[in-house]
Design brief:
alpha+beta; 7 strands
Amino acid sequence: MYQKTLIAGWGDMDFNSHMRNTAYLDKSADVRMMYFADFGFPMSEFRRLRLGPVVMKDEIEYFREFHLLDELVITMSAAGLSADGSRMLLRNEFFRQGVLAARVTSTVGWFDQEQRKLVRPTDKLLEALQAMDRSADFRDLPGSSR
């Protein structure tokens, strides 16, 4: 299972002294981009291809709080993928001391920055998606590229 360990920082906190909801989305995006970089797609490659992930929907479920300087162990898996790789559900789970604290599920597609539309990923990027661990509730998705 792909995972990264991050820290709940000062800028991640809200008025109630726990991690703010948008910080979960930011940390999920960070882990997502770390995954792609580790599989041969650093930001420079996305810039070269003029291609990037676009989030169409995020769902956050909370189970336990995170506080300032807590260690966050964040996993990433595929909860869904279309055969052509144009659409996916990416799942990030946040653990505090080994216990599930939150879950973010994002509906994502690939956006061609020149054509300004959803497209299929390159074959190499599709391989990186297919290599991703799958969640227990993984499902096949319809493609959304044009």
